[in-house]
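FAQ

Q: What does a record look like?
A: Structure on top, sequence underneath. For example:
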């Protein structure tokens, strides 16, 4: 035979009868929550919002110059449907990559700040890349190409400094590669121009050469190349972990459950003994 369903009135009555058990369990769980909050190292959240660099900084200005349409084909990097250069998406992945980690490994302040929160010290660029992959979060902002970069650390000043450092390292790496790429293309085009006699071919090569000179010039400007900072890195004013209110709420919920469960089991034992 199935047990009869308990009405809400009976349930509330049972809870009232179990109030002593519930109170004791809630107090015990609250003590555990207090100890947890006290011994846990607080962490602050640092955030930075970045966006694709504008077309002029990326060198797209040169592609708009109406020298000759044939000059625009081979050297311009592709874009996605939103119009963002692929260099921006390369920047997003470079943030947590091994190449950026190799440069960050040379900064003793970065290593010492990260190792303060770890049981074992990071010793290789691969270990640092794994750490950044786990701890550095990159989230899209709605349907826009903007990205919010988030990092948690016990030292808010270090967290902010690390976000700035990573942005600088990743952006400069892409700038360096773009500059070297343009220089190699300029050398090739100059060599081809010296060997070309046909006037039409010379005009096309000259247009391509001017475009690469634009790219090289813009890559040398003192401004963000792949990703601009929309919202500078900043840390939360208060720790976001552990959440004291949430911890005590969960402790009270667990205490209420186990207190009522203990009362129910003791009541069944008394009924069985009787």
């Amino acid at each position: 035979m199935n047990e009869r369903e308990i009405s809400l009135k009976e349930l509330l009555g049972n809870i009232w009868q179990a109030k002593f058990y519930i109170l004791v369990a809630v107090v015990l769980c609250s003590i555990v929550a207090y100890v947890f909050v006290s011994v846990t190292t607080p962490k602050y959240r640092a955030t930075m919002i970045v966006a694709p660099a504008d077309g002029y900084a990326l060198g797209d200005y040169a592609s708009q110059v109406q020298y000759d349409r044939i000059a625009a084909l081979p050297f311009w990097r592709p874009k996605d449907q939103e119009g963002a250069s692929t260099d921006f998406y390369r920047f997003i992945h470079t943030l947590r990559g091994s190449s950026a980690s190799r440069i960050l490994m040379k900064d003793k302040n970065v290593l010492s700040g990260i190792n303060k929160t770890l049981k074992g010290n990071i010793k290789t660029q691969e270990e640092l890349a794994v750490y950044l992959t786990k701890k550095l979060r990159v989230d899209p902002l709605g349907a826009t190409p903007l990205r919010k970069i988030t990092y948690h650390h016990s030292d808010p000043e270090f967290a902010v400094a690390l976000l700035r450092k990573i942005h600088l390292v990743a952006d400069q790496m892409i700038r360096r590669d773009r500059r070297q790429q343009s220089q190699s293309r300029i050398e090739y085009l100059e060599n081809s121009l010296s060997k070309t006699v046909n006037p039409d071919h010379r005009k096309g090569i000259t247009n391509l050469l001017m475009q690469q000179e634009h790219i090289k010039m813009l890559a040398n400007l003192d401004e963000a190349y792949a990703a601009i900072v929309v919202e500078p890195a900043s840390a939360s004013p208060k720790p976001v972990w552990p959440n004291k209110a949430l911890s005590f709420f969960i402790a009270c919920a667990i205490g209420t459950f186990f207190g009522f469960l203990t009362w129910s089991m003791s009541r069944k034992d008394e009924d069985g003994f009787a």
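Q: Is there anything notable about this one?
A: The two ends are 21 Å apart (CA to CA).
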